[in-house]
C-alpha cells in the first residue's frame, strides 16, 4: 500500500491572456500515492467548489497519455518529472514526498496565450498542421498493402515521429519558445515514407513559414525539448527538417 | 531571401559564418605555434600578412564574417526573447542533458568579442593597421615584429589572465557551436550527432590548447 502524503500546492490563477496572474496556495492533506496528478487537481476542485470558490482550470482529456491535452509545468518541468516519457496524467503522487511544495504553472510562451489559469491556447499547432502536415491522396480503390514497399526501419522511424501528440511541452521547455521539435516530428513522419515524398519540399517550406509567422522562436540546439518530450522525440528530427528545408530552398 | 526571412535560413547563416571562423581559428592557432620554435619564422609570417593587398582583403572578409555572425546572433536572440513571451516561470529545473554552453552562447559570444577587441588593440593595431597608416613604429616595435609584440604583451600578467578567460569562453562557445552548426545544416542524425559532438570537443580542445600554450609559454619565460 502506498502511503498518503500531505503537501503545499501552489497553482497559477490567471483570468485571461491580458491578466497578470498570481499563485494561489493550499495545503493538500492525505492524498493517496496512487492518485494521478490530475485526480489530485480534481480533489482540489471539489474542495474549491464546496467552499463556493471558482474551480482551477486545466486542460485534460483522455487521461491515458495519448491525446496530448494535459499541459502542466510542474516544479519546473513540463509534465513533471516522470520516470519514462509520460504526460501529466500519468504522473502519480507517489513521485512526491510528504511536506513537498508543488508548483503548477501553465506553458509560458508567446505562441501559447493563456486562456484561463493553466489552460493555454495551442491552436497554433493546428494551424501549422493545416499549412502542410498532410498528404494529398487521390481517392479511389484502396491499394494493395504491398504495392509500395517500405523498409521496416523507415516504417518504424516514421511511426516514432508520428507518436508526437502535439502537447507543446517542447515549446514550454525551450528558452526560445521554439516549436522545432513538434514541426520536425510532423514533417519527419511523412518525409520518411514514400507517400510523403512528392510533397516533401512544399510541406517543409509551408510548415516552417507558418511556424515563423505564428511567432515561435529560432532553435538554438539546447536539447531542452528532447529532454522533456513525453514521447521521446529526438532532435535527429530537427536535423532532418533542416535538411528538407534547405534542400527545398536550394531547389527553388 | 530565405537566409533573412526564415528561421532556418537565419540559422544557416550563423552556421556557415561560424564554421568559416572556426577554420580561421585553426589557421591562426597553427601560425601561433611557430612562435614557440622560431622568432624569425614567426616574423616571416607577420611580414607576409602585413599590409599586402591579399592580407587586407582577407582581413576585410574576416571582419565581414564576424559582423554578420554578431548581427544575426542579436537578431535571433531578440526574436527568441519575443517568442518566449514576457511571463517567466517561477520554478525551473534544468534537465541534465542541456549543456550550460548551449544556453549561454550570446554571453559567451560577448566575452569573445571583448577579448577580440583587446587582441586587435594589442596586435592588429600595432601591426597591419600601423603599416596601413604608414607608421611602422606605432606601437614602439616594428610593425612586422610580431614576435616582439607577443613578448611585450605577455610580459604583463594582466593580459595573460584576460587572454586565458577569453580562450576559456571561446572553448565553451566552440564546443556547442561546432555540432550545433552541423545540426542546423542538416548533416546530423542519431548517429552523426554523437560523432560531431566528439569531433567538435576534440577539435575545439586542440585549437584552444594551441593558443593557450603560446600565451602561457611567453608569460612564463618571456621568449627566453
Automatic annotation (TrEMBL), chain A:
All residue ranges annotated as the 4Fe-4S ferredoxin-type domain in the record: 155-185
SUPFAM superfamilies per UniProt: 2Fe-2S ferredoxin-like, alpha-helical ferredoxin
Cofactor (UniProt): [3Fe-4S] cluster; [2Fe-2S] cluster
GO biological process, one term: aerobic respiration
Alphabetized InterPro entries for the sequence: 2Fe-2S_ferredoxin-like_sf, 2Fe-2S_ferredoxin-type, 2Fe2S_fd_BS, 4Fe4S_Fe-S-bd, Beta-grasp_dom_sf, Helical_ferredxn, SDH/FRD_Iron-Sulfur, Succ_DH/fum_Rdtase_N
Xref: Pfam families: Fer2_3 (PF13085), Fer4_7 (PF12838)
Span of domain 2Fe-2S ferredoxin-type: 7-108
One GO molecular-function entry: electron transfer activity
Family label: Belongs to the succinate dehydrogenase/fumarate reductase iron-sulfur protein family.
Official protein name in the record: Succinate dehydrogenase/fumarate reductase iron-sulfur subunit
Classification of source organism: Bacteria, Pseudomonadati, Bacteroidota, Bacteroidia, Bacteroidales
Amino acid at each position: 500500500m502506498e502511503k498518503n502524503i500531505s503537501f503545499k500546492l501552489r497553482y497559477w490563477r490567471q483570468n485571461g491572456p491580458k491578466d497578470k496572474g498570481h499563485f494561489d496556495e493550499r495545503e493538500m492533506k492525505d492524498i493517496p500515492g496512487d492518485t494521478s496528478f490530475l485526480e489530485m487537481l480534481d480533489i482540489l476542485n471539489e474542495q474549491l467548489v464546496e467552499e463556493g470558490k471558482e474551480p482551477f482550470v486545466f486542460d485534460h482529456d483522455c487521461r491515458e497519455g495519448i491525446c496530448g491535452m494535459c499541459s502542466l509545468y510542474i516544479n519546473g518541468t513540463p509534465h513533471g518529472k516522470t520516470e519514462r516519457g509520460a504526460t501529466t496524467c500519468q504522473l502519480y503522487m507517489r513521485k512526491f514526498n510528504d511536506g513537498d511544495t508543488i508548483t503548477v504553472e501553465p506553458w509560458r510562451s508567446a505562441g501559447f496565450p493563456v486562456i484561463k489559469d493553466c489552460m493555454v491556447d495551442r491552436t497554433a499547432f493546428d494551424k501549422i498542421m493545416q499549412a502542410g502536415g498532410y498528404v494529398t491522396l487521390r481517392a479511389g480503390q484502396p491499394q494493395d498493402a504491398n504495392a509500395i514497399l517500405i523498409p521496416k526501419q523507415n516504417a518504424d522511424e516514421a511511426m516514432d515521429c508520428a507518436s508526437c501528440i502535439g502537447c507543446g511541452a517542447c515549446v514550454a521547455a525551450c528558452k526560445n519558445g521554439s516549436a522545432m521539435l513538434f514541426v520536425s516530428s510532423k514533417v519527419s513522419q511523412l518525409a520518411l515514407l514514400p507517400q510523403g515524398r512528392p510533397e516533401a519540399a512544399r510541406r517543409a517550406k509551408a510548415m516552417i513559414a507558418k511556424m515563423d509567422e505564428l511567432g515561435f522562436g529560432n532553435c538554438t540546439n539546447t536539447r531542452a525539448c528532447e529532454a522533456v518530450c513525453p514521447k521521446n522525440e529526438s532532435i535527429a528530427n530537427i536535423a532532418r527538417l533542416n535538411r528538407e528545408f534547405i534542400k527545398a530552398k536550394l531547389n527553388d | 531571401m530565405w537566409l533573412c526571412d526564415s528561421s532556418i535560413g537565419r540559422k544557416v547563416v550563423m552556421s556557415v559564418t561560424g564554421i568559416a571562423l572556426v577554420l580561421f581559428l585553426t589557421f591562426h592557432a597553427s601560425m601561433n605555434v611557430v612562435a614557440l620554435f622560431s622568432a624569425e619564422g614567426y616574423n616571416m609570417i607577420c611580414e607576409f600578412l602585413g599590409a599586402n593587398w591579399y592580407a587586407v582583403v582577407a582581413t576585410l572578409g574576416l571582419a565581414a564574417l564576424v559582423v554578420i555572425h554578431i548581427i544575426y546572433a542579436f537578431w535571433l536572440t531578440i526574436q527568441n526573447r519575443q517568442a518566449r513571451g514576457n511571463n517567466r516561470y517561477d520554478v525551473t529545473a534544468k534537465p541534465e542533458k542541456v549543456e550550460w554552453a548551449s544556453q549561454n552562447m550570446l554571453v559567451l559570444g560577448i566575452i569573445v568579442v571583448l577579448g577580440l577587441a583587446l587582441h586587435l588593440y594589442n596586435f592588429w593595431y600595432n601591426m597591419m593597421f600601423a603599416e596601413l597608416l604608414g607608421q611602422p613604429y606605432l606601437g614602439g616595435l616594428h610593425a612586422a615584429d610580431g614576435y616582439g609584440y607577443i613578448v611585450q604583451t605577455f610580459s604583463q600578467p594582466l593580459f595573460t589572465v584576460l587572454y586565458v578567460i577569453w580562450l576559456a569562453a571561446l572553448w565553451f562557445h566552440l564546443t556547442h557551436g561546432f555540432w550545433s552548426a552541423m545540426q542546423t545544416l542538416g548533416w546530423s542524425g542519431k548517429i552523426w550527432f554523437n560523432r560531431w559532438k566528439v569531433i567538435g570537443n576534440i577539435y575545439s580542445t586542440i585549437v584552444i590548447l594551441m593558443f593557450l600554450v603560446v600565451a602561457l609559454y611567453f608569460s612564463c619565460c618571456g621568449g627566453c
